[in-house]
Amino acid sequence: MAGMTWTITPERPDSPAAAALWRAYYTEVSDRWYQLYEGRSTDPDELEREIAADSGGDLVPPSGRLLVARYEGEPAGTAGVRLMDGATAELKRVFVHRGMRGRGGAPLLVAAAEEAARTLGARRIVLDTRHDLVEARALYARLGYLETPPHNDRAYAERWFAKQLS
């Protein structure tokens, strides 16, 4: 795969690429949860309601950033950060399309999100995830995130991680 490249740039959450990636992310994690716990896929109406309810408006300047990763120019993944307070940022929406996984995009996205958090003034970054998202948990551990007590009480948040930013 010599010559294959990733680029990561900030975009508005309502850009066509970001919106399509958010839909793919939400569809995948929602379907995975429903298939695991209820043996079905996400109801299409529910999917639309949930996507509409989380527009990503907290991932825009001056207190947030949404990053879109492209692989050879094609939208392939996202990661976002938002300031929770002056010293702590939250990592959100880390996602790489299934067909693009295993090509190094996720660590690049997380590193770019950490840099964006530093630029926003954060010295620490936190995130939450679910028990069943074992690949995500392994990625965060590999990248130096440590499990912590809960920092929120969101529905579906089952595991919490943090990392000091240097």
Secondary structure layout plus pairing:
Blueprint: E1 6-10, H1 16-37, H2 44-53, E2 64-71, E3 74-83, E4 88-96, H3 105-119, E5 124-129, H4 134-142, E6 146-148, E7 159-164
Parallel strand pairs: 4-5
Antiparallel strand pairs: 1-2, 2-3, 3-4, 5-7, 6-7
Quick structural gist:
The chain has 166 residues and is of the alpha+beta class. It contains four helices and seven strands, in the order βααβββαβαββ. A seven-stranded mixed sheet has the order 1-2-3-4-5-7-6, with helices on both faces.
Structural overview:
The chain has 166 residues and is of the alpha+beta class. The protein has a single domain (6-127), classed as 3-Layer(aba) Sandwich (Aminopeptidase), CATH 3.40.630.30. 34% of the residues lie in helices and 28% in strands. The protein contains four helices and seven strands. It has a seven-stranded mixed beta sheet with strand order 1-2-3-4-5-7-6, with helices on both faces. The N and C termini lie far apart (32 Å). The model has no long low-confidence stretch (mean pLDDT 93).
Keywords:
28% strand; 166 residues; Aminopeptidase; 4 helices; seven-stranded mixed beta sheet; alpha+beta
- What's the number of helices? 4
In round numbers, the mean pLDDT is: 93
* Rg, alpha carbons: 15 Å
CATH superfamily placement? Gcn5-related N-acetyltransferase (GNAT)
The secondary-structure element order is: EHHEEEHEHEE
What is the number of domains? 1
The residue ranges in which pLDDT falls below 50 over 5 or more consecutive positions are none
Top-tier CATH class: Alpha Beta
SS-based structural class? alpha+beta
* E-strand count: 7
Largest sheet: 7 strands, mixed
Find the CATH topology: Aminopeptidase
Shape: globular
What is the terminal-to-terminal distance? 32 Å
- Helix content estimate: 25-40%
How are the strands of the biggest sheet laid out side by side?
1-2-3-4-5-7-6
CATH architecture: 3-Layer(aba) Sandwich
Strand residue content: 25-35%
Protein name: GNAT family N-acetyltransferase
InterPro entries: Acyl_CoA_acyltransferase (IPR016181), Bact_Acetyltransf (IPR050832), GNAT_dom (IPR000182)
Pfam family, one: Acetyltransf_1
Keywords: Acyltransferase, Transferase
